Structure formats: C-alpha cells, structure tokens
Amino acid sequence: MFRKLLWFTAIAASVATALPLASATQVGISINIAPPAPRHATEPRFRHGHVWAPGHWRWNGRHHIWIEGRWLRERPGYSYNQPQWFRRDGRWQFDGGHWSRRDTRRDGHTDRHDRHDGRRPRP
Fold first, then answer.
1. In what ranges is there compositional bias, type Basic and acidic residues (predicted)?
2. Residue 82 carries which DSSP code?
C-alpha cells in the first residue's frame, strides 16, 4: 500500500510541475532565427462556447517546436488574439496568444460581425 501511495505521489508531483511549463505564454522572446512556415491544417467544426486557437511555432531556447491547435473556452466580451511571430529591428519576436476586451458600441452591444476570430458568422 505504501509503495502505491509513494508511486502515485511521485507521478502527481511530476505532472504538477510540468503543467505550468506547457501552458506558459512566451513573452519578450526576441531571436535571430525565423520560425518555419506555419503548418496548415483544417480548422475543426465550430464548437459552441469555444474559440479555436490554431497551432503555432514556439521557441524552446534551442529551436522552434510546433504547438498543436486547441479549443479555448470563450470569454464573453473578449476577443482572442492568436499567437504570432513578427519581425522588428531585424529580429523575430513572439507575441503569445492573449485575450483583449472587445470594443462595444455606445448602447453597450458588440457588433454582431465582431467575432472572436475575425470571421463573419456562418449563415
């Protein structure tokens, strides 16, 4: 019984320490190596109450690694800004995905075409 408890504790501790690293957003990354071309994949079907965050390249300190796309729970009143690489002053910089408050009209309603992913709603 003690061995099982010790084994379970060791597994739980290793998972708990690995999770924050996997979900951490890279901020302030500036490198000389351009990311590879994005991998193009078919976006999954619409999932109510969620936003699709497409896959992207992330720098791990030595080389670029591909992060698969995933569903994020939608945040009412916010738009999701996808992770992206851009070139500034001759270096490549990474802007991790983040949420930003959506602009609202004076009457307090958001534009019905202002979707979280920038696309118009499907008919």
1. 91-117
2. P
End-to-end CA distance of the chain: 58
Which tokens sit at 65?
């690694």
75-102 tens-digit pLDDT: 999 999 999 999 999 999 999 889 999 8
91 forms bridges with which residues in the sheet?
A: 88
Give the pair of three-digit tokens for residue 19: 């999770």
Torsion angle (degrees, nearest 10) of CA 28, 97, 108, 105: 80
List the chain residues with pLDDT less than 50. 2, 5-26, 112-123
Helix H or strand E encompassing 2? helix 2-23
Helix intervals (H) in 24-116 = none
- Could you tell me if 68 and 55 are in contact, meaning their C-beta atoms sit under 8 angstroms apart? yes
Tell me the C-alpha to C-alpha distance, in Å, between residue 28 and each of 53, 72, 86, 116. 20, 23, 12, 24
